[in-house]
Amino acid sequence: MLPDAINNTRPATDFVGATLGEEFSGIHVGKQAHFRKLTLFPLMRSTHTSEGLDYLLLEDAITQGFGRVTEIHQAGSVSELRFDNSSDLPVLLLGGEELIGAKQNRVLNLTILAPPKQTTIIPVSCVEAGRWSTANTNFRSSDNVMHSHARAQQVMHVTQAMRASGSHRSNQYAVWGEIAAKMQRLDAASPTQAMSAIYERQATAVEEYVRAFQWQDHQAGIVFAINGRVLGLDLFDNDQVMCRFFPKFVRSFALDAIDAAYGGSTPNAPEANEPAKAEAVTDFLAKITSAPSSMHRAIGIGKDIRFGTSEMAGAGLWAKRYIHICAFAQNGRDDQTFQTRMSRPAHRRMW
Q1: 10-residue mean pLDDT series, the chain (351 residues)
Q2: Theoretical Cys-Cys bridge with 343: which of 56, 80, 176, 284, CB 3.0 to 4.6 Å?
Q3: What predicted TM-score, i.e. pTM, was given to this entire model?
């Protein structure tokens, strides 16, 4: 008998809700902003709501004492954590959001709307391969999300796992390999190979990007481009959420833009120092809305929509509306072969 997650995988044509085309028909692209190699385009909703959120963000839930993220049990599991929500509201956990603490730092594999008054087991990936010891019992939310190139890989690998076996695992070897390679290119050092060390090493340059860009009123999403090429987007149901995540996203994009200057994960184009054009955003949105898609049972509340082509991979969380949509351009690299000597000892200890 197939796992429930596979039994509940259906073409998105069976999905009772707005299509991606309908969702993006209510979105318009705002005026671009450009700094060095990075171009950002705001996504604005045609209809603005002044209503407050009907869910909490993870950072707020933790700060207010309603949310607690811990190891799944005393021995721990690299690929899963426990989230206890004591609030009367759901809590939004963002795919790629970094959690600091416990036995090792992790990032969330996908966006989850955790039900109120419940415990939810959340799938995660390790971003600190050299530590397996408890720093403190509880996790805290980081100021960073996983850099965008790694998020692109994660979306692709989780989608493959969901369609193949019904699991929500990432390719942990690829995650470790991507972090180790970026750490080497950007001259970052960490005894535990922590992703956070890359942000710390490049903090001065990254914060220059943060100061160069500003969230705009009513901005519910963001499209980013590096070296003139559109590479991805994030879109939320509410501009307040975008406002909160805006500096975290900019840090993520900045790290890949800095990396591109070293000839890293984003190839240099002839017009590398020129802003991306609005037509490129329109083309990227068209690829999203025309991509084949499938529907899956979400972890927590709602439906998990997966879509993509050989050129793009994306995911959306639907709970009476699209709560979050993300999409990333593919660069064609075979990430499953991208492993490093540095990461192997940690694999033996933790799996």
Answers
A1: 38 68 95 96 83 92 96 92 98 97 95 98 95 85 93 96 94 95 94 94 96 96 96 96 97 95 54 82 95 95 95 96 96 38 35 36
A2: 176
A3: 0.88
